[in-house]
Amino acid sequence: xxxxxxxxxxxxxxSADQExxxxxxxxxxxxxxxxxxxxxxxxxxxxxxRYIITAFCFFVFAGVLAALMRLQLAVPNNHFLGPDLYNxxxxxxxxxxxxxxxxxxxEAMGVYLVPLMxxxxxxxxxxxxxxxxxxxxxGGVMLVVTMLMNTAPDVGWFSYxxxxxxxxxxxxxxxxxAQLITFTEVSALAVSVELVATIFKTxxxxxxxxxxxxxxWAMLITAFMVIFAMPTIVTCSSFLLLDRLVGTHFYNPAxxxxxxxxxxxxxxxxxxEVYIIFVPALGIVSSIIAAFTWRPIFGYPAMVMSxxxxxxxxxxLWVHHMFATGLPALGLEYFTAASIVIAIPTxxxxxxxxxxxxxxxxxxxxxxxxxxxxxxxxxxxxxSGVTLAxxxxxxxxxxxxxxxxxxxxVLLGGSVFPLIGGIYFWFPKFTGRMMDDGLGKWxxxxxxxxxxxxxxxxxxxxxxxxxRRVYTYPDNMGWNxxxxxxxxxxxxxxxxxxxxxxxxxxxxxxxLAASENPWGAETLEWSVxxxxxxxxxxxxxxxxxxxALWDRSADPPIVTGIRSDCREVLVxxxxxxxxxHKAEYxxxxxxxxxxxxxxxxxxxxxxxxxxxxxxxxxxxxxxxIGWFWPGKKKERRRDEDAMPxxxxxxx
Amino acid sequence: xxxxxxTLDVAPLPTYAFxxxxxxxxxxxxxxxxxxxMFVIGIVVYFYLRLKVTDWPPSLPNPDLRYGTINLVxxxxxxxxxxxxxxxxxxxxxxRARFWLIVLILFGLAAVVLRAFEYTTLNCRWDDNAYGSxxxxxxxxxxxxxxxxxxxxxxLAVLTVTYPMTGPRFVDVxxxxxxxxxxVAWWIPIYLTIYFMPRWL
Lengths: 651, 201
Hints:
heterodimer; A: mainly alpha; two-stranded antiparallel ribbon; 4 strands; globular; B: mainly alpha; Four Helix Bundle (Hemerythrin (Met), subunit A); about 70% helix; about 0% strand; elongated
């Protein structure tokens, strides 16, 4: 490792130098155009934008499905939707929201923002980033197509066996669910490896780990959670596919398999999954509060440790989804305790945020309103969660609407509200335009009031015994009024969602032009133009404090010596971000897209026949080799000067 | 612009780094953790299913030890070419790195061929019962890794011949050996699980 002090020097840099550098960087870090170009892009901002837009399209689709459900449930004995269609709708609603919206959109915020926040030019392994987007897209399209062809999965978003097994779910519906998992998890795992490598190894000099923005910490911990949790569900869903396609017996009790094995494997992933959705939102909340109080978040070390603790403890809770399965009492007691303990780090974070707001003088723009909505809704959801952690109570309300209320409170309150606040917050950076703040406040109140009217009654409905996943209910159960109220609230939610989309589209075209840093925030993405240039930074900065922009000195140091005639980035040390070496990132390429096409064809084919594997091997190998084959000119002319003399190659 | 700007000039730094100082290592290790998690789950499922029954394997004979054990020896022996190739790459010794990479590939091909024989002497089918299912899946998960790494290594070996070697290419050869160590290391617990757990439990 080179001592950074030895690299410091004073250099004269004229404006002509700057201009030449700007032109060369724009030339090198070009984003390809045209049809082939569109599929060849490897820029994290472009891919991140595509991910976010695609995820919101799935959000709208799944939201429409929810609206249909609420229409069906508004009155008893309703026949707007038949039972089979209803089963498909609630399954696709849940599956799409969890796998195609919530996780990808959070990862996408990371993909776009993390390289900017840590002061580098692109995400690590940029072609893998592109590949992961296409795989995600094709998986989502597959699910939508099944919905349109009356062959959508209909066994709930967690697809329990034996219902989802070959005996009780003939046809291919459950297979589409299981393979969708493979699509989305391959995509998420790839992005997570990129994020870990990017965050650990490509931070700007001076950004030691204890100077990283809290959003970056949140994405780092999320990436680790994905890496440790998602292999389990890939395995779990693959076992289901094998049971259904080639006659294995993992979940078949008659041949030594076990239905509870599914539940263990699924929830070992499934519980961290909700923290994977939640932890990035915690990072978004920290970013927003700091920007709108103009103060660093109170208690940075406690905040970081809380995020880490949440990540760890989140892996020890999964059996609380299985309290009604007859497992031994000692085990259940452990999981009750762990499920309550996890409230502690989150509580610490909330107190730190309250302290931050208390000390500062908050400016109440739309993003901060959504953060306040998060506080109210998420805390209520957390409280119902603590009640559910108690086994006797859970046994009464398991599989009722009480649980539905709980998880919508924590998911919408804990993730969607901060996410929408985050969109309002970072929209100027993404697009160069401000979203309308007045419409934003209407947006907030419609969603906040609509949400509570829709979901609060569900706590009571659950306590009164209304089960989940019923397509209708009888007239004499006493559930009529609350269901009608919940459906009325859903109307407000739909209006709020529509207003959000309207605000986004309208602001994109006619919003006020945004400067570099319209909020006066402190992280590095706000030091570049809105939207950022393709190369992110004219000069990679040297970070001087935890709030990169607020702690900048009068003569902030910059990094020079990174080549601008090829896609070179600086690789730094994990702990202190001292410069170690330079790496060249690959140019845009069509191969990741082609590889994603082949991979997707293989995944879909293997739903129907095991022969898909031998057929796919050669095309997969071809596209992978094309992807990794080194480019011609750029690498050859580089770097012999930095290498010791090699022995000559004999032909 | 003012003159005498305070800068950190990284021009003298190299364009590659071996091991965890470099970027590729982190991607490789990331995938090792993912695949390793899947192997762990596979072994956990094996033991979970074992606890469900009294007779193990249920109504089936034990797997034959021969090919699995020969493969174990082959795979452990392949550590040697992997180590030599890695060290040669880190010294930029192209002929030596390339030669031992090719030797590694030959060991890998032998392992794949032996694996085909292993399947025939497992004495169970994947659709016999849950035991058969998990044994076939455990073995297949490992087989897929061996096969893809052999292909990877072949492509890399071709590149060392057809392509001028730069620092990052030598790092690739070194990282390739690292991934091979991972594959070898996991064969040990999987071999013990498949071949000895029926005899010990």
